[in-house]
Amino acid sequence: MTELNKYSKTITQDETQPAAQAMLYGIGLTDDDLKKAQVGIVSMGYDGNTCNMHLNDLAKVVKQGVWDADLVGLIFNTIGVSDGISNGTDGMRYSLVSRDIIADSIEAVCGAQYYDAVVALPGCDKNMPGSIIAMGRLNRPAIMVYGGTIAPGHYNGQDLNIVSAFEALGQKIAGTITADDFKAIVKGSCPGAGACGGMYTANTMASAIEALGMSLPYSSSNPALSPEKKEECLVAGKAIRHLLEKDIKPKDIMTRRAFENAIVVIMALGGSTNAVLHLIAMAKSVDVALTQDDFQTISNRVPVLADFKPSGKSVAKISGKEGEKFVGPARVFDGEFELIAGIRSGKVKAGDVVVIRYVGPKGGPGMPEMLKPTSAIIGAGLGKSVALITDGRFSGGTHGFVVGHIT
């Protein structure tokens, strides 16, 4: 029979670890509890972001499910960086870095505390690959419970989401909406808890990770505040016990074929280009070789099937409707702030090829997302008449004739 507490017994069953046991008694564990497997429940919850504001509450539901499964569930937290808040500012330099801080911190806590398994509750974009990278490195039974997507906002009979707020800036500059419209859109775009509502990076990664096999069925599509999301949190306890009993670890699940399956889902959904960066890093954590060429090979045979935002109406990305060729004069900007000023002043015109440079991994630094400038272009009514290239990266909310990751 599989030993469920093969890690935690190092501190709970060894008489030469009396201080560790004293602390565990101090938090309320009993002698019987010390014989059980311990599950680290990591929440990326914090108050300053709709994507993550509810995760600490969901972590408590997961904890209940873990204890109901006759395991010891112990909650800890790690950081999060809100792309929605940091986009368009120097704060975006910290976004991609946060993925690796999350991975390092989860690995550090689970390794130091000798947890036998881990359940992670991520919300915003970089939370999810950070969680999976840590799970791969630890290679102990693990499940990700996605925090779920936000409900749509509404204004003048139209559904709103976070990109509506970004694009409203360009609309205001172009004079196609009033100042009152602008304020109403900003106030109505995020009506409560949940990750950004479209096939942006968070929902792309949640869908890919479900296809990869590291989350429960329907995890990516259960909305943040739905009864189904709470039920998923409860069921996670039974699921993690099953993984412990069968000794099923991330490296058993995240195989080369599983990653290929995840890429197929990303392509069919028209998912975020950030998935390329994240899946390659996730694969590295479990010693699976994955490159950009693998994404291209699968993309060549898998069409976009879904009609999701940002490029469809619900709204498909890189569907081919942007075209394959664009010729025009280069309009070069040193960073996104120069471009925003150029849009405001009318410097950017139909037919231009906008170049944003010095925003790559070193130039940014940190390779920030160019969602604010691309959204401003769309909002200004230039989305079909202006192309954009950059050494930066894009949010999953970006759409139009755009090329990123230029080197």
Write the layout of secondary structure elements.
Elements: H1 9-12, H2 18-26, E1 38-43, H3 55-68, E2 72-77, H4 83-86, H5 95-113, E3 117-121, H6 127-138, E4 142-144, E5 153-155, E6 158-160, H7 162-174, H8 179-188, H9 201-212, H10 227-246, H11 250-253, H12 256-269, H13 274-285, H14 292-301, E7 330-334, H15 336-345, E8 353-357, H16 371-379, E9 387-390, E10 402-403
Parallel strand pairs: 1-2, 1-3, 3-4, 7-8, 8-9, 9-10
Antiparallel strand pairs: 5-6
Descriptive notes:
- By secondary structure, this protein is an alpha/beta fold.
- The chain folds into three domains: 8-151 and 194-300, Rossmann fold (3-Layer(aba) Sandwich), CATH 3.40.50; 153-189, no CATH class; 330-403, IlvD/EDD C-terminal domain-like (Glucose Oxidase, domain 1, 3-Layer(bba) Sandwich), CATH 3.50.30.80.
- The protein has 16 helices and ten strands.
- The chain has a four-stranded parallel sheet, sandwiched between helices. Strands 7-8-9-10 form a four-stranded parallel sheet, covered by helices on one side.
- Helix 7 crosses helix 16 (371-379).
- It is elongated, with a radius of gyration of 22 Å.
- The termini are far apart.
